[in-house]
Amino acid sequence: MNRVTVYTRVGCSACVTAEADVARICGELGVGWTAVDVDSSTELRAEYGDRVPVFLVDGREHGFWKVEEPRLRKALTTGP
């Protein structure tokens, strides 16, 4: 099961950096994650398109634009 979802967009340099950070952190913690292109859906583009990258942990919005590593690690190690 993926605990982290990263909403991204093709051509977004901040998204590339965020995905790399999430991949590293989740890999170290043994946590599943996935990336979703907001432009794949009208609804996603409307909801997240102006804030990508956006991060969800366990289905709840956790942050956007930049990974806050200590905060993400805490969320993933203390549970929902």
Account of the 3D structure:
- The chain is of the alpha+beta class and 80 residues long.
- It has a single domain, classed as Glutaredoxin, CATH 3.40.30.
- 42% of the residues lie in helices and 28% in strands.
- The chain contains 3 helices and 4 strands, in the order βαβαββα.
- The chain has helices spanning 13-29, 42-48, 69-78; strands at residues 2-8, 32-37, 54-57, 60-64.
- β1 (2-8), α1 (13-29) and β2 (32-37) form a beta-alpha-beta unit.
- The longest helix has 17 residues, at 13-29.
- The chain is globular, with a radius of gyration of 12 Å.
- The two termini are 14 Å apart.
- The model has no long low-confidence stretch (mean pLDDT 94).
Topology, element by element:
Elements: E1 2-8, H1 13-29, E2 32-37, H2 42-48, E3 54-57, E4 60-64, H3 69-78
Parallel strand pairs: 1-2
Antiparallel strand pairs: 1-3, 3-4
